[in-house]
Amino acid sequence: MDVVSDAIAAVRVGDPSANRVRAAGSWCARLSAYEGAGFHVVLAGSCQLLLDEGRRPVALGRGDVVLLPHGSEHVLADAAAEGPAAARLAVDFESWSGRDEPSAPGTGAPGSGTPTPSIHSPGTPDPKTPTAELMCGKYRLDRARAHPLLTELPDVVHFPAAPDRHPELHSALALLAHETTGTRPGTDIAVPGLLDLLLVYLIRAWLADRAEAGTPGWACALGDPAVATALRVLHGDPAHPWTNEALAARAGVSRATLARRFTTLVGRPPMAYLSWWRMTRAAALLRDSEAPLDAIARRVGYGSPYALSHAFSREFGVTPGRYRKRAGTHTPGLHPPPPRGGAASPL
């Protein structure tokens, strides 16, 4: 797979979910920190997103999208709310939305048989005329083995409504909004698929914006022809017995040039990055499959189970067998550090 696909696949756990929520009058709801990433799309009206004290609120209008890649705690509130007061008075998002669990695909929307959750305060306008309608969703992620491309993402990524920028993102949002207005044949497959597509497009849009601004980091790494080629072939076949010479030949540059540019943009030399990625893949296979150790060794480029076990123990501090037994408990510290590099359900 390519780098972005591998980065997402390595951390994905379970299926994504989303709900639509209407709000009227004066309102505010707190979303606690969670293991995953979340997003909000403003379908109608306006609102604001509040983070820690001292950080400026993010004003959100119709068509705006906000991604919270690290599951940071935050508050959603009406556009007129005063930040500190709203943060103190915010109700729990589960109570606010009237749901304890994420809705199934296509539910929680007009015409679906399940009413869209609404909130309003006494004496405020009728909730049938909402001041905001949002689509709120989440992705469950195991961030312990997150790729550095994902850890580089800031706490909040805001995409203001601009149909002329990132048209594929806005097309995916339009399809998702349409699909969640009612239950249609195939909805249970269509909605999770569109949510997966949305995450890819959000990350692509963020990378494109950073590349356009010339911001150092993974956007520059993927924009460098030689480094991007090297990353593509390493991720495409991590089991291949790559050497610096072979990798440089594929990238069309000298060994010294590739080593210098790769290390500068990615944070590690090519072979060190490959070793880290092989260990990350091995950990994922141990955790998510029942494949025997010799099969996993072959898939990540080790000639024998012994060779893999030795490298794995050196990286993780435990043998592959013990790691597999502990993996279901999310034992902290059992993942190699990433290379340095440049209302609804609660999210």
From TrEMBL:
Q: Which organism is it from?
A: Streptomyces alboflavus
Q: Which UniProt keywords apply?
A: DNA-binding, Transcription, Transcription regulation
Q: Where is the composition biased (Low complexity)?
A: 103-118
Output the InterPro entries linked to this UniProt entry: AraC_lig, AraC_XylS_family_regulators, Homeodomain-like_sf, HTH_AraC, HTH_AraC-typ_CS
Name any one GO molecular function: DNA-binding transcription factor activity
Task: Say yes or no: keyword Transcription regulation present.
Answer: yes
Tell me if S-adenosyl-L-methionine is a UniProt keyword of this record: no
What Pfam family is a match, any one?
HTH_18
Cited SUPFAM superfamilies: Homeodomain-like
Chain intervals for the UniProt region annotation (Disordered): 96-132, 322-347
Annotated HTH araC/xylS-type domain residues: 228-326
* Name listed for the protein in its UniProt record: AraC family transcriptional regulator
What PROSITE patterns does the record tag this protein with?
A: HTH_ARAC_FAMILY_1, HTH_ARAC_FAMILY_2
